[in-house]
Amino acid sequence: MTTFQLRRLRLRTGEQLREQVEVEIEPLVLGGQEYRSEPARVPAGLTVTKASSGTVFELSFGVRLEGPCFRCLAGAALELPIRAREYQATSPGDDPDLRSEYVRDDVLELSAWARDALVLALPDKILHDPDCAGLCPVCGKDLNVEPHAHEETRGDPRWSVLDELREKL
Q1: pLDDT for 101-148, tens place per residue?
Q2: H runs (alpha helix) in the chain
Q3: Which are the contacts of 62, defined by CB distance < 8 A and separation ≥ 6?
Q4: Measured distance CA(87)–CA(109) in Å, rounded
Q5: Could you give the CA distance from residue 153 to residue 134 in angstroms, rounded to a whole number?
Q6: Residue 165: phi, psi to the nearest 5?
């Protein structure tokens, strides 16, 4: 896990620190499938700005996420640019909106922040191709490689009453 020590910063109001850091991106498990950043450690730009009422943190990096396609389980890869911003008030009190969950005891947890920002930037479905046909629901074959159709099978007789109702509507 990558962290950044805030105790060493001696910023006054209006001052800013820009630093290049390497952030370790932990694997994600989505829908029971594992997705990994390649490489696992990515270069990132960290900006810390001291405001009169607190501190603003900005993190930006590019990541290549690899794992299985949601529809057909073939290998898929996403290139995502990530930009995230957090605010930590000098005196946050009990207000959770004024406190960053990534700042603990003068340590900024970069890996957790980067992972959460990555998850928020993900599309609804990770696909190897936007036109992915997926797997056949009957036989399980990859419809991208072998497009086919099955003869319509007779439904479960227990549902026959609903079939009759559907025909009346």
Answers
A1: 999 888 999 999 999 999 999 999 999 999 999 999 889 999 999 999
A2: 110-121, 160-168
A3: 42, 79, 80, 81, 82
A4: 14
A5: 21
A6: -65, -40
Domain that holds residue 65: 3-130
d(CA 77, CA 103): 31
- Contact predicate 110/2, CB 8 Å: yes
Contacts 24+ apart (CB under 8 A), 89-92: 89/53, 89/54, 90/53, 90/54, 90/55, 92/54
Give how many domains the chain has, as a whole number. Answer: 1
**92 with 99: CB under 8 angstroms?**
yes
Percent of the chain residues topping a pLDDT of 70: 99
Which two tokens mark 42?
């990515």
